[in-house]
Amino acid sequence: MSEKRNDVISWDEFFMRVAVAASMRSKDPNTQVGACIADTNHRILSVGYNGTPSALDDDDFPWGVSEDPLNDKHGYVVHAEANAVLNYRGSLKDMSGATIYVTLFPCNECAKILAQVGIGEVVYLDDKYEGTEDNLISKRIIDSCGISYRPMHLEL
């Protein structure tokens, strides 16, 4: 009988690689974000990426930044974390204590959503907005709800 393989990737790496793969679906030319929610039993609950709502034709909406809110992508794009929560078809109670793996630290709007569904931990690759007002609000929300967060390094 042969020995089993021991050089397998960790659960963290596995779920973050799923988040990275999801980010590759984003049509945003500047920031592609992916998210993967895994429960405490190492099961993937849901995946999401930043993009327009599925009911919209994303060819008809802007993908750039503009002073004119009607022509600015931010008014039309749903963030990866929100999409991951919205894509889940089970009971939101299943997310209690779950971990979300994201390629970019959540904004304050997504932090509220994650707190609302009971996410227990945020693991992220990048915190490029660290120290901004939005980022400080996000971290205050997450800290106040007892959600832990930690960065992760991933060799691609």
TrEMBL record:
Domain of life: Bacteria
Listed GO CC annotations: cytoplasm
Single biological process term from Gene Ontology: pyrimidine nucleotide metabolic process
Keywords: Hydrolase, Metal-binding, Zinc
Molecular function GO terms recorded: dCMP deaminase activity; zinc ion binding
Active-site residues, record numbering mapped to chain: 81 (proton donor)
Ranges for domain CMP/dCMP-type deaminase: 10-143
Keyword Membrane recorded: no
Cofactor(s) for this UniProt protein: Zn(2+)
InterPro entries per UniProt: APOBEC/CMP_deaminase_Zn-bd, CMP_dCMP_dom, Cytidine_deaminase-like, dCMP_deaminase, dCMP_deaminase-rel, Deoxycytidylate_deaminase_dom
Annotated Zn(2+) binding sites: 79, 107, 110
Family: Belongs to the cytidine and deoxycytidylate deaminase family.
PANTHER family: DEOXYCYTIDYLATE DEAMINASE (PTHR11086:SF18), DEOXYCYTIDYLATE DEAMINASE-RELATED (PTHR11086)
Record protein name field: dCMP deaminase family protein
The organism of origin for this protein: Enorma phocaeensis
